[in-house]
Specification:
six-stranded parallel beta sheet; 17 helices; six-stranded mixed beta sheet; alpha/beta; inorganic pyrophosphatase (n-terminal core); Diaminopimelate Epimerase, Chain A, domain 1; about 25% strand; single chain; Udp-n-acetylmuramoylalanyl-d-glutamate--2,6- Diaminopimelate Ligase, Chain: A, domain 1
Length: about 525
């Protein structure tokens, strides 16, 4: 089954993490394809407390979902051990119509053998008529032969290759100690060659004189092949490690990204490239053809539908579904998909309805995570985003999980250890970027039962926000420090004072303003800025 990733937004909050886990669990329980929850950023303190409370593991962290080599339908080509003969390699490549094949040493890449390498070697062999250090065992195997006199055997064989013909009976090759002589059933020629001590005799379809078995100075091989065939095969007894390309091999690993692979291929002209696993073992070969139609990763987006908040490499994935409770933004798909976007306070509320529609009850652990997500997003029902559906869903889920709303609220909003965190960590814990009417803004939110410690670090936080504004070219950067008990938020901002005054009808002072009753980024911050900018 194909793996489908379920992910929330970058800098995930409790709803993003819980909804990814809950939707993957729902799909898997319904017997559909394998769904896997993942996350795009670190888990904040609130979410970790919730996960710990219910004994749940955070989803796996992924940096991006760009297309990788493992997503390509690359060829699962056979590999050749470096010790196999050229003859075996040639027959394998012809039979399987391979233009190039990896050569390995114990499964790990040693080189690449192409038809070009074989053709070049064949031409050089014809021109030289000589073999150098050919393993004798390889030679006997390639010639389908038998070693007549094992006592004369050597590990390797070198010499000038020639075929006996009547017109060269007195030729110097017949008596040259460096000769590898090929002849037929011609005992007189054999005796003369043995007397001269030639290096090797290859007897083609010949009767064997018993006394030749005791010859100690000349290697004698008997073969059922004809002389013409032997003359062609004798050079093919060489191990492929001697003729393959073993230097500056361009190879790719299974985890490499397809667009990076494409750039490398554009700078080289090889027909195919080996694909390696993490241990360096060869899995197959990839070529330019495989990059034309890659298998895209399949993704379900929960708790967001804005490209700037989603996974890096979003343009390379196939979005299967979107389940969200925010405004519609800018994500586009190549084909119709299931999109469920409802005006409730939390994505987990929508998922509660989807569980009910399928007739599936979430496990106590998943129910607890979903209830925690609703209480987090609605600030225990105090946020203006909260609806009657959110309250009903949270109460139902708490019953399944065996916990009360009050107990779970205390778990979520327990006083955090903000003093031990850097300003960057605090600001980035629940940060989102937005594009509104040609304006780019960043908005983060921190909810606390006692925000005095956070506000005491105002200067640090503003420095982080100013650096972000300069780095990303934002028009405005906002941090909502939400006081759960006072039911309001202090806005720290870096940007234009007039924008804050006009959008929220309050007089800012020293890059800060308190907004009573404002507790929702989605319903009270973004809509005001959208209305101001048109």
């Amino acid at each position: 089954m194909s793996k489908i990733f379920v992910t929330g937004h970058r800098n995930p909050d409790t709803d993003s993490i819980s909804s990814a886990l809950a939707y993957a669990a729902l799909k898997n329980a319904a017997g559909e394809d394998e769904y896997k929850a993942v996350r795009l950023g670190s888990v904040n303190d609130e979410t970790q407390r919730l996960l710990d409370y219910f004994g749940a593991e955070a989803p796996e962290l992924v940096g991006n979902l760009r297309t990788q080599v493992k997503d390509l339908d690359f060829d699962k080509t056979p590999v050749l051990e470096r010790s196999v003969t050229v003859d075996f390699a040639m027959r394998t490549m012809l039979e399987q119509e391979l233009r190039a094949v990896p050569v390995v040493d114990g499964g790990k890449l040693f080189g690449m053998l192409s038809f070009g390498d074989l053709a070049r070697y064949e031409l050089e062999s014809m021109a030289e008529n000589r073999i150098e250090d050919v393993p004798l065992a390889n030679l006997v195997s390639v010639l389908e032969g038998e070693l007549v006199n094992p006592a004369a055997a050597a590990e390797f064989l070198s010499g000038n290759v020639s075929i006996y013909l009547p017109q060269n009976y007195e030729s110097e090759r017949l008596t040259d100690p460096e000769s590898v002589l090929i002849c037929g059933d011609q005992p007189d020629v054999v005796e003369q060659a043995l007397a001269a001590g030639v290096r090797c005799l290859v007897l083609c379809r010949a009767d064997i004189d018993p006394h030749w078995k005791s010859v100690a100075d000349t290697i004698i091989i008997s073969t059922p092949l004809c002389a013409r065939h032997v003359s062609r095969l004798i050079g093919q007894a060489l191990p492929v490690e001697r003729i393959c390309n073993a230097e500056k091999i361009v190879a790719f690993h299974i985890e490499d990204y397809a667009d990076d692979v494409r750039e490398v291929m554009l700078k080289s002209r090889f027909r195919s490239y080996p694909v390696l696993d993490a241990e360096g073992k060869v899995l197959g070969t990839v070529s330019r053809f495989h990059l034309l139609r890659p298998r895209r990763k399949h993704v379900v987006l929960v708790d967001h539908n804005e490209a700037s908040q989603s996974v890096p490499g979003l343009e390379q994935v196939e979005i299967r579904e979107i389940i969200d409770h925010h405004r519609l933004a800018d994500i586009q798909t190549g084909q119709p998909i299931l999109m469920r976007n409802e005006p409730v306070g939390c994505t987990a509320t929508i998922l509660t309805a989807m569980y009910q529609e399928r007739g599936i009850e979430p496990s106590p652990k998943i129910a607890g995570l979903m209830a925690g997500a609703i209480l987090s997003d609605t600030v225990v029902f105090k946020s203006p985003t909260c609806t009657a559906r959110d309250v009903a869903a949270a109460e139902k889920l708490c019953k399944i999980a065996g916990v009360t709303v009050e107990e779970l609220g205390k778990v979520l909003f327990a006083a955090g250890d903000e003093a031990s965190k850097s300003a960057e960590e605090l600001f980035g814990a629940d940060y989102k970027a937005f594009h509104i009417a040609e304006k780019n803004i960043g908005v983060s939110q921190i909810s606390s039962v006692d925000p005095s410690g956070l506000l005491a670090r105002k200067a640090e936080l503003l420095d982080v926000m100013a650096a972000l504004k300069a780095r990303e070219g934002f028009d405005l950067v906002i941090l909502m420090v939400t006081d759960i008990l006072k039911e309001g938020s202090t806005l720290l901002y870096v940007g234009n004072d007039e924008t804050i005054q006009l959008a929220f009808g309050a007089e800012p002072k020293e890059n800060a303003v308190f907004l009573p009753g404002v507790m929702s980024r989605k319903k009270q911050i973004i809509p005001m800025l959208s209305g101001l900018w048109g």
